[in-house]
Amino acid sequence: MNTAIDIVDDAATGGSADQRLLVCKTDPQGVLVYVNKAYLDRQALSEDAVLGRPLALQFHPTMPRAMVDFMWQELLSKREVFVYFKCRSRRRECYWVFANITPGRDPQGVLKEYFIVQRHPNEQALQIIGPIYEEMWEIEQQAGATADALQRSLGVLQQAISQLGGNYEEFLLAL
Amino acid sequence: MKSFSWLYSNRVSSLVAFAIMLAMVGTVFLRYGLDPLFTALTAAGVLLMVLRILTIGHDEKLLANIEKLAEEFSQGRFDYRITRVPTLSRMARIANLLNDGCDLTEIYFKETETSFHKVRDQLYYRHTQSVGQRGLFVGGMERINESLDIIAEHHKQKGRENLRAELGYLKTSNLLHNLNRTQDDLTEVNEQLHLVEEISERAVQVAGEGQTAVSRVVSELGGMADKIGVIKRSAAELRQRTLQVSEILGLIKEISENINLLALNATIEAARAGEHGRGFSVVADEVKRLANSTRDATVNINGILADFVQSSVAMEQDAKSMNELAEATKGTIHHFKANFGEFSRIAEQVYQRVSYAQIVGYASLTKVDLMIFIQNGYRALNDGPDSEAWRLVTGDYAQNKFVLWYRSGIGFKHFSHLPTYSRLLAPHQAIYRHINDALAIASPGWDYDRELQKLVLSEFGDLEKQAGLLVDLIDEIEKDKFKFEVLGDVSSMDVTLF
């Protein structure tokens, strides 16, 4: 029954499953409060199994910790942020997404939620980001999650950015 | 109509149907007693009914959620989503599709808002992300991205124009200033040459006077030669006359001797006078004849002496006129000497003026070279790294025209011993550095960035300041050179200048 609906969805919209947007919302603490159908299909999880759990649930074990820290740092500075996520589904499939996270506010300007849109990444970008993340993760693995190791891990990314010029966001959007 | 609204409620209509069914079962039971088949069918019906009423609760809740979403949507809010969707419900699909629609709409608005927010901060790279978008949103986002590119290009263009205008102003105002200075230099050269012309004119006049003086001397000397010829002839005549006088004087001597002899004879004859008286008459005759001869000779001498006096007078006159001539020549020569003195003064003045004009000319050329160098800096900025101007201003500093002038060229030859000279290089090095720094800043995408533009502008501003300083120094050197060397001791000039 579940699968049948998936097929109907794809047929109706003309997209293949992995091209669909994976959309979710979290509360200000990063706890998932909404995920779309495509997200559940990709993760191979039911809605009940996802809601109330942290966003980090979807991360692959080799996703660099420094990147996650960087993401939250940016969000706490009230800025939108682009990040490549390395993810793993319940079926242990590894997949990449290009995520954009935007803080959502109520009309009084109080932080209400984070809106996370995960897009299908292009192959060229992954060929650059993949090795960088690998190197970052290795540094973190060897030294453990110390502040110094995370700093060095982020340094790998910063060096890659400085070689191409521009800031982090320009770097990612130009890939 | 309103009293029938309960018919539209699943729950109420189901409960009513359930109640009617229970009433039916009760009636049958009272009338016909307990029938096993009927009872079993009734139990199954009741069970199904209860299950349905329970699922209707789920559907009702989902419907309420759908209603809430529709309400939010109608108020222009897209952040509400339907969660905990019962997967088996017929309405689950509707809920998911509505969620998807809200997602797409919210993404569209957030993307658009973020992009334009960045545009406000003059960041144009944040395109809306249309990957995964659907339907009309895709085209909308693509058009927004096109617009962003146009805005960026426009901004870039505007930035370029602003900078070009500011640079242009800087360039033309300084160029004008420098051209004015060069014009002053050339006016100075012109004035000096004009003075040289006046002086030369005076020299021509003096030379003309000198020529007249010389021809007068020549003609006066010619007159003197004539006079000298006359004197020579008079002298020859005098010698002739003198010879004649001496002949006459010889004659007189002879006569006197004869008279003396006669007187002796007369003395002898007188001794015998008494006897022979006739002898006296012979002597007397002879004396008479001698007396006549003497008288003739005397007359002759008188004539000669008169001639002699006449010749003397002529000679005296000649000598006098010769003296006068000599005096006149002396005056002319004196005048001539004065002319020569003025000639030498004129030559000195001409030398000074021409030297000054030359100094000003050298300095002016250097200034023009400098101006050309700076103009090439502006052109390099405009034409980019592949241009000739860029190559010229970024080339080897040691091969720079000014540096060559300074180290081994005309500058070194004529000005290097002056105290100010060593101060020339620093501002020129600064100019070279500022141009190169400006071009380095200007390399990648500088026309995008107002901050980079400001940096470039400030480099060019500093450069123009240094150029002003350098031109002032060149002026100072030019003045020192004139003051110390051209106006100074003329004899020392050769030593210091060449």
Features:
heterodimer, A: 175 residues, alpha+beta, Beta-Lactamase, five-stranded antiparallel beta sheet, globular, disordered N terminus, B: 498 residues, mainly alpha, Four Helix Bundle (Hemerythrin (Met), subunit A), Helix Hairpins, 3 domains, 11 helices, rod-shaped
Short description:
The complex is a heterodimer of chains A (175) and B (498). Chain A has 175 residues and is α+β, with helices and mostly antiparallel strands.
List the helices and strands and how they pair.
The complex is a heterodimer of chains A (175) and B (498).
Chain A: H1 2-13, E1 22-26, E2 32-35, H2 37-43, H3 47-50, H4 65-76, E3 81-88, E4 94-105, E5 111-119, H5 123-143, H6 147-164, H7 168-174
Antiparallel strand pairs in A: 1-2, 1-5, 3-4, 4-5
Helix pairs in contact in A: 4-6, 5-6
Chain B: H1 10-32, H2 36-74, H3 92-120, H4 136-271, H5 278-383, H6 388-394, H7 401-407, H8 410-415, H9 425-442, H10 450-486, H11 490-497
Helix pairs in contact in B: 1-2, 2-3, 3-4, 4-5, 4-10, 5-6, 5-9, 5-10, 9-10
Flag low-confidence runs of chain B: 489-498
Q: Write the CATH homologous superfamily of chain A.
A: PAS domain
- For the secondary structure, the number of strands of chain B is 0
Whole-angstrom Rg of chain B: 69 Å
Count, helices of chain A: 7
Task: Name the chain pair with the biggest interface and residue counts per chain.
Answer: A-B, 38 and 27 residues
CATH T-level topology of chain A: Beta-Lactamase
Supply Rg of chain A: 17 Å
**Helix coverage percent of chain B:** over 70%
Rounded mean pLDDT score of chain B: 81
Q: How many angstroms does the end-to-end distance of chain B come to?
A: 124 Å
Biggest β-sheet description of chain A: 5 strands, antiparallel
The arrangement of helices and strands of chain A along the chain is: HEEHHHEEEHHH
Architecture per CATH nomenclature, i.e. the level-2 architecture of chain A: 2-Layer Sandwich
Structural class of chain B: mainly alpha
